[in-house]
Amino acid sequence: MRKFLSLFLSLALLFSFVSSVQAEAKPISIWVGDEQVQLGSLQPIMEKGTTLVPAKLVLQKLNFQVTWDQKSKVITGKKDGLVLSFQIDHLGAIVNNTEQGLLAAPKLVKGIAYIPLRTVSEAAGYEIVWNKEQQSIALQAKATSQGFLWKVEKAGSTVYLLGSIHIASKAMYPLRSEIQKAYEASDYLVVEADISKMNDADVQQLVLDLSVYKDQTTLKDHISADAYQKIGDILEENGLEPNVLDTYKPWSVSSSIDYLSSSQSGYDAGIGIDAHFLQQAIANNKPILELESIEYQLQMFNRFSDKLQEEMLLSSIASYYTEDSSIDHLTELWTTGNEEQLLELTDSTSANEELNKALLTDRNAPMVDKITGYLNDSTNKTYFVVVGAAHMLGENGIVPLLEKKGFAVTRQ
């Protein structure tokens, strides 16, 4: 045993020495596109498989405005609506009010703050490419998401219309600069419902009141035995009891299954397009308006017929098991800004009369009435309206309805 430990320590010392010699001979270089970041004597540090870099130098190279709070030991970078904060010795970074875990904590080295390069680069819309032979790390800009943005103006009042996706992956960011600039130029952020309030106690109670049965029946009394069995299988597959959702209505169970599917595919409502701008509005105190409300949308689902609720649930079950994710198609449609495909998706909803009426027809007209009110506002304000992309086009879409009212709506 002693011989083994001696050999192990010898090898550890040997390879540590070899590594340090290599690092001295060829330090790691950082590149942004074709330009090398001039670090001088402030070389990157490898810790727990993570590359830590001089914060101020790298952030400024990526065009962030950098501030340092000596008291809290927090370094912050701000750029085009993106705010990154790192606290020394804390295993977490704040990205637009949302905390992300870190494998290695930021640290001070001779008074210089070092932060994880990957977290900075990915948040800023770059991909990391490691060249082992050259000992170099290249940050390559990812293609920006095009999205669906329109602009309407009337006598000094302006409305930007952003067709959004309520659930997204990190790959959808960054958004193209025109979208961010439209948000920043606006006096108000307008959303369907302010989902930042979802964790409020009264909202949580409302969700519970509407989503569970109170007539002594359970889920299995309202859906087929086959559907109930498949739900149990999905729940067990995810480490849950098969009957954990028995008291919930099919529309609520459908939402839960969709959540499991999207999570496995790397999607998250917390970084959806509306959530992305809500986080910014909260951070910079921009007023938030609602076209509807959380209660309105919950009540809408709760009014669905038993037949439609089961159809939704069956669709969610099918999506859970398919390898060809519909969310992937929706993401590609949004990132490319393909209007023709968006119209096809919107038209497909019309095949189910009840669903089309509830989700689109009955909602679009009141939304247009509110948007018209913004345009008729004599105070000449600018509104950034974020609404599900499926609401925008089609016979009863927001864009055509505004055009019928005589407004010129231009794609940006």
Short description:
By secondary structure, this protein is α+β, with helices and mostly antiparallel strands. 42% of the residues lie in helices and 22% in strands. It has helices at residues 2-25, 55-61, 117-123, 177-184, 201-211, 225-237, 250-264, 273-283, 294-302, 306-321, 326-336, 339-349, 353-375, 398-404; strands at 29-32, 35-36, 45-47, 50-54, 65-69, 74-79, 82-87, 92-95, 98-101, 107-109, 112-116, 126-131, 136-141, 148-154, 157-164, 188-191, 288-290, 382-388, 409-411.
What does this 3D model show about the protein?
Strand 14 and strand 15 (157-164) form a beta hairpin. Helix content is 42%, strand content 22%. The protein starts with a helix and ends with a strand. With 412 residues, it is α+β, with helices and mostly antiparallel strands. The protein has two domains: 27-141, Copper amine oxidase-like, N-terminal domain (Copper Amine Oxidase, Chain A, domain 1, 2-Layer Sandwich); 148-411, no CATH class. The protein is globular and about 70 Å long. Residues 1-25 have low confidence and may be disordered. It has helices at 2-25, 55-61, 117-123, 177-184, 201-211, 225-237, 250-264, 273-283, 294-302, 306-321, 326-336, 339-349, 353-375, 398-404, and strands at 29-32, 35-36, 45-47, 50-54, 65-69, 74-79, 82-87, 92-95, 98-101, 107-109, 112-116, 126-131, 136-141, 148-154, 157-164, 188-191, 288-290, 382-388, 409-411.
